[in-house]
Structures are given as C-alpha cells and as structure tokens.
Write a structure and sequence with these properties.
Shape: globular
Oligomer: single chain
CATH architecture of the largest domain: 3-Layer(aba) Sandwich
CATH superfamily of the largest domain: P-loop containing nucleotide triphosphate hydrolases
CATH topology of the largest domain: Rossmann fold
Structural class: alpha/beta
CATH class of the largest domain: Alpha Beta
Number of helices: 12
Number of strands: 13
Number of domains: 2
Strand content: 15-25%
Radius of gyration: 23 Å
C-alpha cells in the first residue's frame, strides 16, 4: 500500500493523552518479479500501542527498519494506518476524510531532520514562517500587522533577530536554518511537535545549542514532543520516556533514566553499547550471537542475533514463544522471556564497577 496523506475526525470529549496509538499496524505492498507482477505485504509497524501525555517527551529509538519513522509518519498524517487506531491531539486520523483537518494541522507540527531541504529556498524567512498562519489557519483572518508581529515573536523565541526575516534560507548557517524550522513549527502554537532526527544533519558544534533551545521551549511553552532518533544522546537529553522499537514492534518502554540505567531487553543493551561514550559494561560477559537459528517464525524476532540467548544456551522458549510487552518493573515494560537475567547481569556489572572504583581510589 502506497503512502498517502491522511485526514482527521474530531473525537468528542477531552482526552488525557496528546497521542494515543492502539494496536497500530502499517503494511506496504511491495512488488517484485518481471514488470512487478508479484506482490507481497511488508509489515512496517506491527501492533504498536503508545501514549504520550500532555507535557511529556517521548523518544522513539531503534535501528534502520525498526518502524520508528513510520510511527512518526502516522502521527503526522503522512502515512495511512492499515489497522488499529491513532488519536492525535484529540483527532482520530482517518484516511479519506477532511473533517476538522485545519484544526488538526494547527495542533500538530513537525521539525524535519534536514534544514537544508525542509525550507523553500525561493521564499524569504518571513514568508516561510508566515505561511502556516494563512494556509493552516485561514479562518482567523489575521491582518498583515498581526502576522508580522507573530513572526517577529517566534524568531525571538528561537534566538534569531527579526531584522533577518527578509533574508533567504541560503544566507543562514545550518543551525540557524533549524532555528527557522522550529520557529515555523511554533507559529501556530501547536499542542504537539514531532521532531524527526532534529540534530542529525547539524555540525557537532551546534547540536548542543539546538538541544538546549528545544529543552527551553518545552519548559517555557509546556509543549509535548515526540522525538524520532537513532542518536541516544539526543534522546537521553530531551526525552522523559523512551520506547525502543525492533522489526515493527515496541520491545521496551519506560522512563528515560530507568531505560538507560537498567535496560530490560537485549536489543536495548545493544543500542546502549553503540553510544559514543559507551563502555560496553552491559554487554560484558556476553559473547556475540552465532549463526541465525531456524524456525523462528513463531518465536522471538530478536533471537537470531541475541547474545543473551547464546549465553543461556539457546533456550527453546525463544524459538517457540513470541514474548509480549509486559511490565517488568513498576514503570518499565519489556518484551523478553529473560528480563530477570538481564537485570541480574546489570546489577552484577554495577557491583563489579563499584569494587573496581574503590580499589582505584
């Protein structure tokens, strides 16, 4: 199924969550063979349920092909779900309908990862930021003076001078362009902002500045963020909660400090070990996975590369049972049969590190 823009229907009554995804499924129709006469469904997202409360920042992480970007595209209305429900900012996203579309566009904005391509090079900065005020909110009928005042206001919010509003995007640095993209997202005072790899295209020297800006705006304006990123440092700095995705499913979910200090899934361990400042302490004592085992169609999808499974002697349960996402701590859920063993390994590692530190002192 090809990607398609979606529209929304207002959900009666107030909702406690800004984002509510329930059993969300997205399938794409892939064609192969001579002239594409053969087709098959590729499942990008498989039964994902996530919620984001007002004022919360959810970071969705995972490797390439994990489905995290597809989830973001559903939230942004860029991809149609083939199963489940998606309610965003009080609006149920339904393909083929145009009820209350403009209001939903006011409530949900996005900051794309590449500020070099997300800004129209033919438009001046003032026109870029003013466009949502006239296109997505025409009913308000703002005067030119009101639009100019709002553009100047959001430019100041992101640390840019209104005097530069007459310039074109190519006259700004990469960090300044991303500030312009953030200003455009703020123009309509949205309820939710989706951040799609917000710093991955920036120089290392300016990433910290953009992260600090996003954090300050979140606190000052009581914004709700959904961050899609492969950069765990960015997620650790901004997110209050983290959802880890692997092959279209959420395999772990919990508060950021809990996930980063006491992970409950082997895939989370692998991601943490890939961080630039990682010491590999969580994987200490675990050997690499061997050849991909057979017969995993009904078992754990991560078993073929799981170092913990190898360490435990390849339990048959991993091949027979697909683990469901279940509570493993008061605020943490994980989809692994042997989360207790992971917790034991991390606690043993912390104890060893503490003893080593004491001896060094």
């Amino acid at each position: 199924m090809a990607s398609q823009a979606q529209t929304t229907t207002a959900v009666p009554g107030e909702t406690t969550n800004i984002v509510e995804l329930t059993d969300l499924t997205v399938r794409y129709r892939a064609r192969a063979g001579w002239l594409g006469q053969h087709s098959t469904d590729v499942v990008a997202v498989d039964g994902v349920s996530l919620s984001v409360a007002k004022g919360q920042t959810l970071g969705i992480v995972g490797g390439t092909g994990s489905g995290k970007t597809t989830v973001a595209h559903v939230i942004m209305g860029m991809v149609a779900a083939t199963g489940g429900t998606a309610v965003v900012a009080g609006h149920r996203i339904d393909p083929g309908r145009r009820d209350d579309q403009q209001r939903w566009q006011r409530d949900v904005q996005v900051v794309m990862q590449d500020p070099y391509s997300s800004l129209d090079p033919r438009m001046r900065v003032r026109e870029i930021i003013a466009e949502p005020l006239t296109v997505a909110d025409p009913a308000r009928r703002r005067t030119r003076a009101e639009i100019r005042e709002r553009v100047d206001e959001v430019l100041r919010m992101v640390g840019l001078s209104p005097a530069k509003a007459a310039l074109y995007p190519h006259q700004f640095s990469g960090g300044q362009r991303q500030r312009i993209a953030i200003a455009r997202a703020l123009a309509l005072e949205p309820t939710l902002i989706v951040l799609d790899e917000p710093t991955s295209a920036l120089d290392v020297s300016v990433r910290a500045q953009i992260l600090n800006l996003l954090r300050d705006l979140h606190a000052k304006l009581d914004l709700t963020y959904v961050i899609i990123s492969h950069d765990l440092v960015t997620v650790a700095y901004l997110a209050t909660e983290v959802a880890v995705m692997h092959l279209g499913r959420v395999v772990e979910r919990g508060p950021t400090d809990r996930i980063f200090s006491t992970p409950g899934h082997p895939y989370t361990l692998e991601l943490l070990a890939s961080m630039p400042n990682a010491t590999g302490k969580f994987l200490r004592g675990l050997g690499p996975a061997r050849q991909p085992p057979s017969g995993l169609a009904t078992g754990c999808r991560y078993a073929y590369r799981c170092a913990l499974r190898e360490e435990l002697g390849r339990p048959e349960r991993c091949e027979r049972e697909d683990p469901a996402l279940r509570p493993v701590a008061p605020t943490q859920s994980a989809a692994c049969h042997f989360t207790d063993r992971i917790f034991m390994l991390t606690s043993e590692t912390e104890a060893t590190d503490t003893m080593t530190t004491g001896r060094n002192e």
